[in-house]
Amino acid sequence: MSISIGDVVTDSISGLTGTTTARVEYITKCVQYLVTPKWKQGETFSEGHWIDEIRLKTVPKKKIAVKRKRLRHTPGHRGAGPHAPKRAGGRVGTSE
């Protein structure tokens, strides 16, 4: 099972959903994660619960759609843009 600290998981038995905030592995090879539920304003602070790894299922991450704006190519444009600093007269590297 591939669970990492920071993953959102759900306990298959109790239904508790939260973020894994710690991991412990005992000498008996038992692996547990500390699952901390999301705090909601107005509620009292709820503590995390240690849950066996085998009971946890990761919640799929939501995909975020990013709309990209396509820029138009302007002939003769060299990337300076209207806000680029203007060069003082003369050539670069000369004392004109």
Automatic annotation (TrEMBL):
Query: Region Disordered: what ranges?
Result: 65-96
Please note every region of biased composition (Basic residues).
65-76
Entry protein name:
Uncharacterized protein
UniProt source species: marine sediment metagenome
